[in-house]
Design a protein that fits this description.
The protein is an alpha/beta fold. It folds into 2 domains: about 10-165, Murein tetrapeptidase LD-carboxypeptidase, N-terminal domain (Rossmann fold, 3-Layer(aba) Sandwich), CATH 3.40.50; about 165-300, LD-carboxypeptidase A C-terminal domain-like (Glucose Oxidase, domain 1, 3-Layer(bba) Sandwich). It is built from 9 helices and 14 strands. A 6-stranded mixed beta sheet has the order 3-2-4-5-6-13, with helices on both faces. A 5-stranded mixed beta sheet has the order 8-12-11-10-9. Strands 7-1-14 form a 3-stranded antiparallel beta sheet, with no helix packed on it. It starts with a strand and ends with a strand.
């Protein structure tokens, strides 16, 4: 089976010489990484747009204070020259600025948010609260340092430069007896961030029916089980019509055992929602870009 998306006409189609806004809403970059990112985007023919912080960074791990990181993101909304907001890296910290972001003025013009991992919090806010579709894709640091393979980089570039109209992904039914024809919009990303959205303004299920994408990295099976059960017990799946399970990197337990497949199978049997495996979306070297906030379609091959 294939899951397909038609890229909306309102998504930007960049050309050489266009600006692209860079944000660091989470962890700080290491020395030299911003220069590598700028060189990368310059090689693509784009002009990286950076908003310098007013104060030095004294945070233990964040890119700067909450106030500075919020200001950086807000400036991207008011900048007419750029149509794309791309995250430099993930880590942790984006959710810390979201309450203040959502209490401020809603952006009037569509901007395409790009990133993954900790950027999941921003995806949920953009999808649910701004009603903006977004792109779950590699962060710029991973591309610049060679962690992402050429296939994934080329797909990301082709989307940015408007060279692709239809995006398709192979999916495998995990509970084929449960059928679904029409899918609502796809939301989600990193499972840990979806869990911590519970009770917030950007909570994943705050706006009617949806399909869920989940992935995670370096978690023991019991933690994944805990997160999935928290979502179930909080009734997050009441409006979920399908689940797409991306790449999970499991840590061995204290006995050097792995239990993820068992956890996933038990979970799927309990919630009775159509579930599908969708590979190469997550924290691996192959990290395919996929739209969020858009309703996909199924195609049986």
């Amino acid at each position: 089976m294939q899951l397909s998306f038609e890229i909306p006409d309102y998504w930007p189609k960049l050309i050489k010489g266009d600006d692209i806004s860079l944000i660091s809403p989470s962890f700080a970059l290491k020395p030299g990484e911003i220069a590598s990112i700028k060189d990368l985007l310059t090689d693509w023919g784009l002009r990286p747009q950076i908003f310098p912080c007013k104060t030095p960074n004294h945070e233990a791990f964040l890119a700067n204070s909450d106030e500075e990181r919020l200001s950086e993101l807000q400036k991207t909304f008011s900048c007419d020259n750029s149509k794309v907001i791309a995250a430099n890296r993930g880590g942790y910290g984006a959710a810390r600025i979201l309450n203040d972001l959502l209490e401020g003025k809603k952006p009037q013009k569509f901007k395409l948010l790009c990133g993954f991992s900790d950027i999941t919090s921003l995806h949920l806010a953009f999808n649910n609260c701004f009603k903006f579709s977004t792109l779950h894709c590699p962060v710029l640091k991973d591309i610049a340092n060679g962690r992402i393979n050429n296939k994934s980089i080329q797909l990301f570039k082709d989307i940015l430069f408007g060279k692709i109209k239809i995006l398709s992904y192979e999916v495998r039914p995990l509970n084929p007896a449960l059928k679904i024809v029409n899918l609502p919009k796809l939301l989600g990303g990193n499972l840990s961030l979806i869990q911590t959205s519970i009770g917030t303004k950007w909570q994943i299920n705050n706006n009617g029916e949806y399909a869920m994408l989940i992935e995670d990295v370096d978690e023991e099976a019991y933690k994944i089980d805990r997160m999935l059960n928290h979502l179930k017990n909080a009734n997050i799946f009441n409006n979920c019509r399908a689940i797409f399970i991306g790449d999970f990197t499991e840590k061995a337990d204290r006995n050097n055992q792995y239990h993820l497949n068992q956890i996933i199978n038990e979970f799927i049997s309990q919630i009775k929602i159509p579930a599908f495996e969708i590979r190469n979306i997550g924290h691996g070297a192959t990290n395919l870009s996929i739209p969020l906030g858009i309703a996909p379609t199924f195609k049986i091959l």
